[in-house]
Amino acid sequence: MNLRIILTVAALLAGTGAATANCYEGLGCDDSQYFTTQALQQGTCQQLWEVRNMIYQQNGYCFQTNRAKQSFSNDGCYINDQASVRLNVYERKNVATIQSVEKAKGCK
Question: Distance (Å, rounded) from C-alpha 44 to C-alpha 66?
Answer without folding.
Answer: 20
